[in-house]
Design goal:
The chain has about 190 residues and is mainly β. Helices cover about 15% and strands about 50% of the residues. The chain has four helices and ten strands. It has an eight-stranded antiparallel beta barrel. The two termini are about 30 Å apart.
């Protein structure tokens, strides 16, 4: 790891968030230096497809599949990783709402998939809880069940561009079928027993 990055981590992390283009929040950057966090990432793009699409006014079962570019990553382990792509596989009850400023709902979701790291290794994820809205989704307590970082847990926040009123025809006809945005934060933490 670059000496400058180590110094920023030791300094509390705010400098890291600025120096790396805001890819990690100050608390995540500080956590990357603490004993609990193995990897902290953020700033990459996210593109997720919904099938069937989220419809206006009522929740229905939906598959969510897509690719999450984790952006820039900080890690204290050797060899370190600097980026990765999460091939997300999830299901949840979703709806969109064209009548309000709300962007829709994601409930009772489960998330997993595979992360391909920049060094060619993989992490297999399962059992994550997917909640939030079509504008701001959270994945909690996903378990790394295989590959690199096995036994750890994952937390992620995704900010999608659906933070404006969704057009009525998108919600009522075929349903909202694609959302894209940013991976705002992503952490792999040591599993605590």
């Amino acid at each position: 790891m670059d000496a400058r990055v180590k110094a920023m981590l030791a300094g509390g992390g705010l400098a890291l968030a600025v120096a790396v283009g805001g890819v990690a929040s100050a608390s995540e950057a500080a956590a990357a230096g603490a004993g609990g966090t193995r990897v902290a990432c953020g700033g990459g793009g996210a593109e997720v497809y919904l099938h069937p699409g989220a419809r206006d006014g009522h929740l229905r079962k939906t598959r969510l599949n897509g690719d999450l570019d984790l952006g820039s990553c900080i890690t204290h382990q050797r060899p370190s990783v600097t980026s990765g792509t999460w091939h997300l596989r999830a299901h949840a009850k979703t709806s969109c709402d064209s009548r309000t400023t709300s962007s829709g709902t994601i409930r009772n979701g489960r998330a997993g998939g595979i992360i391909r790291w920049d060094d060619g290794q993989v992490s297999r994820l399962a059992h994550g809880k997917l909640t939030g809205t079509l504008a701001n989704a959270r994945i909690h307590h996903a378990k790394v069940v295989g590959g690199r970082f096995k036994g750890s847990s994952v937390e992620a926040t995704l900010l999608f561009s659906q933070n404006v009123v969704i057009r009525a025809d998108t919600c009522s006809q075929r349903g909202l079928r694609e959302i894209d945005g940013r991976v705002m934060s992503f952490r792999i933490e040591h599993h605590r027993r």
